[in-house]
Amino acid sequence: MTDRSYTTSFTVDQTPAQAFAAISNVRGWWSETIEGDTSRVGEKFKYRYEDLHRCEIQIRELIPNSRVVWHVLDNYFSFTQDRSEWKGTDILFEIARKGEQTEVTFTHLGLVPDFECYDACSDGWHTYVSGSLRDLIATGAGRPNVGEAITESEQLLTR
């Protein structure tokens, strides 16, 4: 059976340590309004974007310079029939040295094309992970959500 979960990867010239630090700086690449600790195993944090999306995530695994695993404890979407589609899914960041570069592979385990939110969510993850997180690692400056629609999906859903 093939896993159809959303996944994306990118490479940067920085070290695995720099990538790991940036991933843990969730406010620096996803949203400045994250509430809670994002840097210790067992801690929980909350994400919210207007009334479209909110979730509570627990950090399950932090292996320095190698791996980060989050578990979605609760989720709410205003734009899907099953408002809790992410609930119970895992979000995985894998970091590996590839020659002179570092590869970051992001997988949202359980976020599959069958989900009603898949198009909007994969658009969001692409923007925040392959764009903002990559920029944070590569340049030291990400492009987190600061309360305005950033992705095309956010723009369409907030009209």
Automatic annotation (TrEMBL):
Signal sequence, start to end: none
A Pfam family annotated for this UniProt entry: AHSA1
Gene3D superfamilies associated with the record: 3.30.530.20
Domain Activator of Hsp90 ATPase homologue 1/2-like C-terminal per the UniProt entry, residue ranges: 24-136
SUPFAM superfamilies: Bet v1-like
Superkingdom: Bacteria
Family label: Belongs to the AHA1 family.
Descriptive protein name: SRPBCC domain-containing protein
Biological source species: Labrys neptuniae
